[in-house]
Amino acid sequence: MIRSLLQSAGYLLLCPFLAAQQPLATAANSNAAQTLPDTPSPNQASPENWNRIGNLARDEEIRVTGASGRPLRCLFAGATSDEMFCISPFTGRELRFNRAEVETVRSNDERHNRNVLIGTLAVVGFGASFALPRQPGDETPKVIAATIFGGVGACTGLILSPIVHFIPGKLIYRRTR
Known about the structure:
The chain is 42% helix and 18% strand. By secondary structure, the protein is of the alpha+beta class. The protein has a 6-stranded antiparallel beta sheet with strand order 4-3-2-1-5-6. A hairpin with a 5-residue loop joins strand 1 (61-65) and strand 2. Helix 1 (2-29) crosses helix 3 (110-131), helix 1 (2-29) crosses helix 4 (142-160) and helix 3 runs antiparallel to helix 4 (142-160). The radius of gyration is 23 Å and the shape is elongated.
């Protein structure tokens, strides 16, 4: 009985990893060419787009992506026409971003992502325990197995939440080219 529960829990832990790899494989195999419109519409003017940063509340959590492409989490402190200022939530040190180096600024939705992932995997674990066939001689009530699998799913979601981001956050600024 316990062995079958542990085997099923192992399958449950592998499901998120296998599901995350499928979109990567399909994206790599897609060879559809994009066509450009005859009359492309112009992007938003850069000064107007940058001015949206000034509407942020002080200490609002944001993610700033620079030329390196790696997003940096910080608390918004202020902005001028040429620079943006943030405070690192980890070190408390002030960070300065030159406008020319900033690619995107997004609101930080890590908490929402974490809650979605934990809830989804808990429900998957709970449902999977009811969907699994009973082993001969297994007298464990399905509700107990469902609670165990739901807990394993929730813990897996908690562990994966810093890695997997379903919701990128509201786009506040994107540098126009």
